[in-house]
Write a structure and sequence with these properties.
Length: 546
């Protein structure tokens, strides 16, 4: 046998991006050669590190599932104990964030958000947007036009929408999380391997490349909400993306400002480290309550009955683990000069039902009163009619001040055990199980039709609340739970509820309820627990074939 020595010759490829999605009207204004070249550079420089960070997530989830509770890190203690460093803080237009409205980026919702009177608009390409190829690119078009004052929209019924507000909210765009791919764009690396692009880098890259300079000219800046982070290493990856991007188009370092959602259990143990890694680009943290609940369930789903949560409606912001995490967030933010932004109550008004509207106003007012009293600098709402309600509670605390960064919280002491104290002492009810199945199927059906934020039973549902619904069902089955009346929660029991829900909904030609029920079965009734319901559903149902 001959042994070959010497260098092994390999074929080197020039990194490249290829678009396989259908090109609609004006898509060429977003998918320009220059923008695609920028996306290529982002993937070439940061794609491999993204995959490394996703592997880290899997390892950590495995460790927690096998009995290793998360702890505050010993190797970063010096960061937490150094009182000198601060974050960059607010950029122009972010000094007052007392009320932020959230929503998807289709033209109608964009115009409504810009006319809403909120201080900030979270322009959401993540959980409030179903990531169809059309939504991904046409959302970019909406943002491009809005930033240039060129956006208008006429509905199929002939109603015309225009931006009429003299002062519009500061736009903070939320790209998809690190875990989500963009199947309609392929990246080929130097080794000739082609893989789906990163949804995060696509959303961020297209928005930043086309709008950063115009936003600066408008007196604002390229601002981002960063979703689903699980570690300071992931934050460091984003910080390096920001630094490279600023240099690429020639704007000063630190122009980008990011607000990080603390919406995963591992991230709650690394708040200061996340702020530190992003300190040149960081404006604050947000308490992403719904994904945080989902993260608790996901990480502790197999750890026994004491980690099982009751009905979703019983997991409020005042239960021990939620209270601990939000108190720690405010203290951490203000210690480092960062804004603490509250979360979104799911209650929404119904203009055709005064009783529902009044209940929503009361629930939201109580939620925002608690947040303002705890020291938050601002909060989220999902409906324009809720802006005055939320603003009144923050005005009562802030007065003329733009924020309450000066309010430190030295009395707050949160330990590792407090962050996983999930004891609530409430039962699982038959209505709670039915509600989860109903919301899960009805939301996924709308998501498959391209709708990412959906009003269901007078609550605003998005991908995060759907994740809670399906993950609770999975956990209840696998932990042999029963309802309050003693009924075992089994696959057969839930199958009966699926059939019941399908009989209750209004069916019409072209609906996606059968597909939605199949997705729900996959993510709630299977032996394995998919990390995100959106991953397989996206690949199976939302990806166009070339």
């Amino acid at each position: 046998m001959r042994t070959r020595t010497g260098p092994i010759l390999t074929q080197a490829h020039e990194p490249s991006i290829e678009v396989s999605g259908r090109l609609g009207p004006r898509y060429d204004e977003i998918l320009t050669p220059e923008a695609l070249a920028f996306l290529t550079e982002l993937h070439h420089r940061f794609g491999a590190r993204r995959h490394d960070r996703l592997a880290d997530r899997m390892r950590r989830r495995f460790e927690i599932g096998n009995g290793h509770d998360p702890q505050f890190r010993d190797d970063t203690r010096h960061i937490r104990e150094d009182d000198e460093w601060k974050v960059a803080g607010a950029g122009p237009g972010l000094e007052d964030r007392r009320v932020e409205i959230t929503g998807p980026t289709d033209p109608k919702m964009t115009i409504n958000a810009l006319n809403s009177g909120a201080k900030v608009w979270l322009a959401d390409q993540e959980d409030a947007t179903s990531p169809t190829w059309r939504n991904v690119i046409e959302g970019q078009l909406s943002l491009r036009d809005a930033i240039r004052g060129e956006l208008s929209f006429t509905s199929p019924e002939g109603k015309r929408y225009e931006v009429t507000a003299t002062e519009t909210p500061t736009i903070v765009m939320r790209p998809r999380g690190w875990h989500l791919p963009e199947q309609h764009i392929g990246f080929t690396d130097r080794a000739g391997r082609t893989m789906a692009a990163s949804g995060s880098l696509v959303d961020f890259g297209l928005y930043f490349f086309h709008n950063a300079r115009q936003l600066i000219a408008n007196g604002r800046g390229p601002y981002f909400y960063i979703a689903k982070l699980e570690s300071s290493e992931e934050a460091k990856l984003w910080d390096d993306v920001f630094t490279f991007s600023e240099r690429y188009i020639g704007i000063p370092h630190g122009t980008i400002r990011a607000t990080v959602l603390i919406e995963t259990l591992p991230a709650a143990f690394e708040m200061e480290e996340i702020l530190f890694e992003l300190r040149d680009h960081c404006a604050g943290l947000n308490a992403g309550r719904w994904d945080y609940i989902f993260s608790i369930i996901k990480n502790y789903r197999g750890r026994g009955a004491r980690f099982v949560l009751p009905d979703r409606s019983e997991v409020t912001m005042t239960v021990p683990f939620m209270r601990a995490y939000t108190e720690l967030l405010v203290k951490t933010c203000h210690k480092r000069g960062a804004f603490a932004i509250g979360g979104m109550s799911a209650f929404i008004p119904n203009r055709r039902d005064p009783e529902v509207t009044q209940r929503a106003f009361e629930k939201v007012a109580a939620d925002k009163k608690r947040e303002a009293g705890d020291g938050f600098d601002g909060t989220w709402v999902a409906h324009p009619d809720l802006i005055p309600v939320a603003r009144a509670e923050f005005d009562a605390v802030l007065g003329e001040r733009p924020n309450q960064l000066d309010r430190q919280r030295p009395e707050v002491e949160v330990g590792a055990a407090d962050l996983i104290d999930v004891h609530i002492g409430r039962p699982i009810t038959a209505a709670g199980v039915h509600g989860n199945v109903s919301v899960g199927i009805r939301y996924v059906e709308a998501w498959l039709r391209g709708l990412g934020a959906v009003a269901i039973d007078n609550l605003m549902e998005d991908a995060a609340t759907a994740e809670i619904s399906r993950s609770q069902v999975w956990q209840w089955i696998h932990q042999d739970r029963t309802t309050e009346d003693g009924t075992p929660i089994t696959r057969e029991y839930v199958e009966g509820l699926i059939a019941q829900v399908l009989s209750e909904v209004d069916r019409r030609d072209g609906d996606r309820f059968d597909d939605a029920a199949a997705v729900f079965r996959d993510v709630a009734l299977g032996n394995d627990f998919p990390a995100f319901l959106t991953l397989s559903a996206y690949s199976r149902h939302l990806t166009e074939t070339p």
